[in-house]
Design a protein that fits this description.
The protein has 384 residues and is an alpha/beta fold. It contains 14 helices and 15 strands. A hairpin with a 6-residue loop joins strand 11 and strand 12.
């Protein structure tokens, strides 16, 4: 059997384990009511938490940005690809999250894959929550530092690892809101440990930015936390409704990242029209208290409707995991719901631990009560 033909056996193994992934194509979008592969469905898959991705003001800003700045940036930021809207967006982002400076990236994955290597390397140590996003895991491995993974949110275990470490430089890395469980990291304790053991603290606020804290300023702002040793990562393709990501912190650490982060230095800059559009997105987030109130009402409505009927993870965020257990059962439940016009993704290993396959329900401020009720009715009709 050739190396190419061996893929057929690998595909067969994925099929047998219920782990083969398939893409669906969105053929029409209008808020949370979309068309997928030609079928109208309610969307409970998206991370568009504030419902801004279709907002007319953002569409208008994107058109204006394209007309003024074109589409592509044409080069890396440090060559000729850094435009005035990039500069303005970085200043606005830094101010919004309460930091001195920020650096824009094309994707959140690129931030997490590159930033850690600018701070630590061989002979250093990274301390990471075991349920961190894959991009944080990959970024940590790329540094060649000693990677220590502590049990999920176990601060006693982390403290022991930090105390035992003789590494020259230490970096603690965590999600703020964990993407498959929807729970929150103990950020205040993490900062306390980082200060006690002189470590960097990198917080990926992908699912908190725009949703948590005053005016949606994020998980750190919700707790009133700040320190020069913190690096805050935010994603702009979720609650912000645009695309890209940023890292924010003190001026000197951000300048160091500009000098040393390979995923920033050696890639073409993001389209300037997106940075232009982001300025409008920040205004919408800032003024979005009503949207956040609607989002929280949707969370409460869903959890009340499922209480005692399904196993829900303990989450107060828009990420609401409904635990099914077996891979095939989760995939079958998702397929039945899709056939009834409700799209909820089945999440299976290796994204989540074995035996914890789930439906990952993502809620948005754009969902109305009738949409939540349609999901509840679909789940009730398919209850085991």
């Amino acid at each position: 059997m050739s190396i190419v033909d061996s893929l057929d056996a690998e595909f067969a193994a994925l099929d047998a384990a219920g782990l083969r992934r398939q893409r669906r194509t969105v053929t029409r979008r209008q808020g949370v009511q979309i068309e997928v592969d030609g079928h109208p469905v309610l969307n409970f898959c998206s991370n568009d938490y504030l419902g801004l991705a279709d907002h007319p003001a953002l569409v208008e800003a994107a058109i204006e940005g394209a007309q003024r700045w074109g589409v592509g940036s044409g080069a890396a930021h440090l060559v000729s690809g850094h435009f005035a809207p990039h500069e303005e967006a970085e200043r606005a982002l830094a101010h919004f999250v309460g930091c001195e400076a920020a650096l824009l990236f094309s994707t959140g994955y690129m931030v997490n894959a590159g930033v850690m290597s600018a701070l630590v390397g061989r002979g250093d140590a990274i301390f990471a929550d075991r349920l961190n996003h894959a991009s944080l895991v990959d970024g940590a491995l790329l540094t060649r530092a000693d990677l220590k993974r502590y049990p999920h949110c176990d601060m006693a275990a982390l403290e022991r690892l930090l105390a035992q470490s003789t590494a020259a430089r230490k970096l603690i890395v965590t999600d703020s809101v964990f993407s498959m469980d929807g729970d929150l990291a103990p950020l205040a304790t993490l900062l306390e440990l980082a200060e006690r053991h002189d470590a960097w603290l990198m917080v990926d606020d992908a699912h908190g930015f725009g949703v948590l804290g005053p005016q949606g300023r994020g998980a750190l702002a919700a707790l009133g936390l700040g320190a020069e040793r913190i690096l805050l990562v935010g994603t702009l393709g979720k609650a912000a409704g645009v695309a890209g990501a940023f890292v924010a912190g003190s001026s000197r650490v951000v300048d160091w990242l500009l000098q040393k982060t390979r995923t920033y230095l050696f890639t073409t800059g993001a389209p300037p029209l997106l940075a232009h559009c982001l300025l409008t997105a920040l205004e919408l987030i800032h003024d979005g208290d009503a949207r956040r109130a609607q989002l929280n009402a949707n969370i409460n409505r869903l959890r009340a409707g499922l209480a005692g009927r399904f196993e829900l993870a303990d989450s107060s965020t828009p990420i609401q995991p409904l635990i099914v257990g077996q891979n095939a059962a989760a995939a079958a439940l998702a397929a039945r719901l899709f056939g009834q016009g409700v799209w909820v993704p089945a999440i299976r290993p290796p994204t989540v631990p074995e035996g914890t396959a789930r439906l990952r329900i993502s809620l948005s401020a754009a969902h109305e009560a009738r949409h939540i009720d349609a999901l509840l009715a679909g789940l009730a009709a398919n209850a085991p």
